[in-house]
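ok trying this again, last paste got cut off
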Amino acid sequence: MTVVVIGAGSIGKRHFGNLETLGVKARLVGWRAFRPADLEGASAVVIATATQVRAEIVTLCAARDLPFYVEKPLAYRADDLAHMMTIAAPLAERCLVGFMMRYHPAFRDLAQMDLSGVYGFSLEIGHDVRQWRQNWSFAGSYAARPEGGGVLLDLCHELDMAHCLFPDVGLRGVDALGHADFAGVDFASRIALAGGGAQGTVAMDYLSPVSLRRIALRGTGGTIDLDFIGGTLVMDSGQGAQARDWTFERNDMFLDAMRDFLALVDGRATSGIDHLPRLDRVGTSCALIAQAWEARRFSGMITGDYP
């Protein structure tokens, strides 16, 4: 098997390294250097480019019946998403979308719980984007682009997790904060969701001086608070809190997702994860992300230098 990884940024290099770790022959090609001929001899493709150019590669893969692993989000406009899902439909059962938080052990535990009594939820992620990576420029990155950039798309895992836990919720609105130097780029977004007897919010930002990532659930049977960064899951039914801790390597999620993708390519059984992000199973989650991006309403501006 030979896998071509398109996109030589940090995530593309991670996938390339993981494929080598798994003993799979891989070729890493930067987007600017990529030519369709690079797909010759490939068994599968990993698409780790900027969001706005993924449709072109998906089209090439579909024409060659090449299964692909595509980073999230698949698309940020509903029309583009519908087009990509249509052209990729014949091979969708062999493709994977990079919703790697579905592989987080704490989320997997949460997804197996009975959440039927939950009436309120919140998912939140935030960090100062200027501190994200050493020698990294926000202004020169994909994140600063009005098309395909911004925090809602960049940190859309939280919206995907909300959809997994509460598949009946629908979009009620999106409020965003922008910046005068980056027109059309959201630095903070708060998404309102409701349906199926539950209501809640998903919030993401590039601003928090303290990195945070957490889920809070409120139900008639008790409360659940999950802190991804702190590594704790606390449940309280009113009879005293119970806590669980965990330790794991972040890259394990990427490795587990890649193993499932390779299994799909080979026609083997996957890991049995509850919410396998196979392309034919993630359409509604991808659609919710695109719908939320298109529904953003900029209600304020933040200040500060973001070089």
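PB: full thing came through this time. The longest helix spans residues 251-266.
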